[in-house]
Amino acid sequence: MPLSYSIQNESKRVLVEGILQNPLFHDLPEDARALADNYLPIKGLEAIMTSLLLKKKYGVEPRKVVINTDRAQLFIMSTFIQTIDPREDAAPVEPSDLLTLQAKVNKYFPNCEIHNMGSSSRFPGFPHDRPEIKTAEESWLPFIEKIAQFDSEEIETLANDKYRQAGTICWSPEDYEASEQGKANAHVGLYEIFHHPHEDKGPTWWNDSPETELAELGASVLRVTAPHIADFSALHSDLNWGKWNAHLDLRKEEDKETLHQLILESDIVIDGHRPGVMDKWGFGKDDVLKIAKERKRGIIYMRENCYGWNGPWWYRSGWQPISDANTGVAMGYGRAMGHEEAVVPVLPNSDYCTGVVGAAAAIHALLKRSQEGGSYSIDIALNYYNRWLVKFVGSYPEDVYMVWTMPRLLGMMVKAGTDGIFLLEHFEVRTSKAIGAQIKTVKPVIKYVNGPVELKFRVGTRGNGVDKPRWPEYLSTEIIE
């Protein structure tokens, strides 16, 4: 890597120029720009908002914050490098043929790339089971013959509008910017906040709890899922830290009333479902804002989708690979590897960073509610982050990221072990009483030097439906019974 290139200096440049001085972020708190030193861009935004919250809510002056750039890289791969019961023998993960299969797809369709997710066998009209097919190679030909009957736009429309599966053409960054969807969301930075004033909802923070201490900065989170809907349970051990998890079936009136009561006692409501699903059950944005009128303080409602909340594709479902393909990130990744074709990034960067954006946006809304009162709604989207990444961060210079570096990078990461970014000091072992296990995982990226804040999770990770659907009296309660 050239001596003139510095990860730390480049991170600060992106934070200052890409966020704090960016006209798309005109609504940031006035004090935010004074706290820019030594912060990585997205985690830096979160740290700045947290420092402002500490000052305004608790009277704590801004303290030195350290963000380790190596640990920040590990953050977006934490799902893949955690270890459950680290003292036991590891269960190996079998290698995948995914890259080989992608190469064969590109061979047959070199000028038309579609990225699909979900039960994609439904839209070509195949049965769910083909017992006569015995090998992976045999399974390719029926798909090749069927998909060849469509062009890319037909497949995209069929997947999204008829079969309700996530899928997108792999656009270049230039094509996405010129699309109706790109233009409709070009005014958005990383998120949008909307104020919903109400005459009897004055400025307020949140209700203090007998066990909430400044050293335990962080929200108490109750995740609600449906018992009859499948979930991606492989992610629970990494993504469910600090969350109670309860089941509610909104087909039952008593469970709808329980959710209504939970919302009445909440400060922030987050909706991560497919756009429109919660509206069907009476808990969309307008419904939640209406529920808040039943109490004395306003509420903050946050919703997340893939494509952004403006434009013709706002209603479509999607995840990190879909957004990466739609916004041109995948095409940029492929170009950096020397190919004029899309290569979906291996690591879920946009997923994790959009989550950090959501945390910063929620703190921003809490700060605004403390000054102006009323309720607030927040829109976040994977495409918002990815467009910002492409437009204001961009690719590495060619002398930093050369064509031959990618395979060497992956090999170097594996071989480095505890001598590279996988230093033991970047990891910690946490105990989850809810599952009766220890998990070795990445430490928090943000560190407050000499206090008074220690970032940690109050309760351990767990699967769905472990807890009762109510708020506990004490916030250190491990399992709500």
Automatic annotation (TrEMBL):
Residue spans crossing the bilayer: none
Stated family: Belongs to the CoA-transferase III family.
Molecular-function GO terms, alphabetical: catalytic activity
InterPro entries hit by this protein: CoA-trans_III_biosynth/detox, CoA-Trfase_fam_III, CoA-Trfase_III_dom_1_sf
Provenance organism: Penicillium vulpinum
Pfam families documented for this protein: CoA_transf_3
Listed name of the protein: CoA-transferase family III domain-containing protein
Gene3D superfamilies: Crotonobetainyl-coa:carnitine coa-transferase, domain 1
Residue runs in coiled coils: none
The organism's place on the tree of life at top rank: Eukaryota
